[in-house]
Write a structure and sequence with these properties.
The protein is of the alpha/beta class. It has 2 domains: 56 residues; 133 residues, 3-Layer(aba) Sandwich (Rossmann fold), CATH 3.40.50.10610. Strands 1, 2, 3, 4, 5 and 6 form a 6-stranded mixed beta sheet that branches. Helix 4 packs across helix 7. The longest helix has 42 residues. The termini are far apart. The relative contact order is 0.10. About 11% of the residues have low confidence.
C-alpha cells in the first residue's frame, strides 16, 4: 500500500470513529435523562387527580341548596305580594308607569312594621300570568295579594288597587284613584302614598276581625 493510500485510509477511519463517538454520546445522554426522570418520579410521584366525571359531580350541589330559601317570618308577621300593575290603556308607554307604581308599592310596603313583602324579582315573574291568585299565593307563601291596573284616558289616569285574601280569594279592600296627568314622578309618589296608607288600614282591620 502506498503512503498516500494509507494516509487516506487512516483519515477515513478517524472520521468514522468520530461520528460513531458522537452518536454514542447522544444516546448515552438521552438514556441518562430518561433514567433521571424516572428517579424523580419514583421519589416524588405525580399529584393525584380525580376523574373528570367525579370532579364535575363534586361541583354539583343538591337541588335543595340551589332552590331559593324562604325567609322565616317573625311572630305575628303578615306576608304580602304586590303583583305587577296591569296597563289597560291603549298607550303602551303607560306600561312603564304601571311598572313604576308596582316597584314603588313594594318599596313603601316594605317599610311597614310587621309586614313581610315579596321581592320585586319574585313578584314581577308573574307579569301577564293567568294563574289563579290562590295558586300564586301558595307559591309565594303569602297571606294577601295586592293587584291593580292603570287606565289612561286623555288627561286623567285611573289606578285601581285590590287587596285579596289568599285563603279565601275574597276581596278585603278595593279602590280606584283618579288623578290628572301632570308630572309622572309626583303622580306616582302621590298614588303610592295613598294606596299604602289604605292597604295598611285594611290589613289592620282584617287582622283585628280575625282575632
Amino acid at each position: 500500500m502506498t503512503p498516500d493510500a494509507a494516509h487516506r485510509k487512516n483519515k477515513v477511519r478517524a472520521a468514522w470513529i468520530s461520528f460513531v463517538g458522537r452518536i454514542l454520546a447522544q444516546a448515552i445522554g438521552a438514556v441518562a435523562s430518561v433514567m433521571l426522570g424516572l428517579m424523580v418520579l419514583s421519589r416524588y410521584g405525580l399529584p393525584e387527580r380525580a376523574p373528570t366525571h367525579q370532579a364535575a359531580q363534586a361541583d354539583l350541589k343538591p337541588v335543595s341548596q340551589l332552590a331559593p330559601q324562604k325567609a322565616p317570618r317573625g311572630a305575628g308577621e303578615l306576608a304580602i305580594a304586590v303583583l305587577p300593575i296591569q296597563n289597560y290603556s291603549s298607550d303602551a308607554a303607560q306600561t312603564y308607569f304601571a311598572d313604576g307604581v308596582t316597584e314603588a308599592l313594594i318599596t313603601e310596603l316594605a317599610q311597614v312594621a310587621g309586614l313581610k313583602v315579596t321581592s320585586r324579582t319574585s313578584s314581577m315573574a308573574y307579569k301577564g300570568t293567568s294563574k289563579p291568585l290562590p295558586v300564586i299565593a301558595r307559591e309565594l307563601d303569602v297571606d294577601v295579594i295586592l293587584e291593580g291596573s292603570v287606565v289612561h284616558d286623555k288627561d286623567v289616569v285611573r289606578v285601581t288597587a285590590q287587596l285579596i285574601a289568599a285563603d279565601s280569594d275574597h276581596h278585603l279592600w278595593a279602590r280606584s284613584y283618579d288623578r290628572p296627568v301632570r308630572k309622572l314622578l309626583p303622580l306616582q309618589a302621590d298614588l303610592t302614598t295613598r294606596i299604602v296608607a289604605d292597604v295598611n288600614l285594611a290589613l289592620r282591620r282584617w287582622m283585628s276581625a280575625k282575632t
